[in-house]
Amino acid sequence: MPKKPSNRKKHKKEGAGELYSPKVMDYFMNPRNVGEIKNPEGVGVVGNPVCGDIMKMYLKIKNDKVIDAKFQTFGCGAAIATSSMATELIKGKSVEDALKISNRAVTESLEGLPPIKVHCSVLAEEAIKAAIEDYRKKIQIKTAKKSTAKHKK
Ligand code: FES
Active site includes 120? Predict the structure, then answer.
């Protein structure tokens, strides 16, 4: 029976001749914070219409601080590595500081990406922003409900 190609071979093909850094490979092969958070304060889903990759980010937030972050990514090795690194970078940060995490910061923390893969790190930045936007919308709805309830009394 023919052997299935390993992820390592796929990665080489994806990089179009340019190799990922050992750190990218590590985060691709052993991604941190994969999964789902039950009852998250914020969820962000973003996709790249060109390649079809999808990233979902879950945030647990207390007192405006990110206390946990998990992700599910259906996509390329760089998308998996960058979403994993993004969750590590935002954990423990205030919501304000988490919003400042750029795709460049994610890429630098992974010791770089091949130029044709930099767009994958944009997805990670967008996923963080989308999850925080969702969190803020939920807070606004809660606040509006509370003030409506007060006025009814
Ligand atoms: S190729 Fe689509 S995010 Fe990497």
Answer: yes
CA 120–ligand 1 middle distance (angstroms): 5
Contact status, residue 42 vs residue 131, Cβ threshold 8 Å: yes
Give the pLDDT confidence score for residue 153 in this predicted structure.
62
Q: Where are the domains of the chain?
A: 15-145
DSSP single-letter state for residue 33: S
Angle at which helix 7-14 crosses helix 77-90, to 10 degrees, equals 90
pTM score: 0.84
**What does CATH list as the number for 15-145?**
3.90.1010.10
Q: Which two tokens stand for residue 76?
A: 């390329």
What pLDDT shows up at residue 110? 96
Active site residue 76: no
Secondary structure percentages of the chain, helix, strand, coil, to 5 = 50, 20, 30
**Distance, CA of 14 to CA of 3 (rounded, Å):** 19
Q: For residue 54, how far is its CA from the centre of ligand 1 (angstroms)? A: 9
Question: Out of 16, 19, 29, 51, which one is annotated catalytic?
Answer: 51
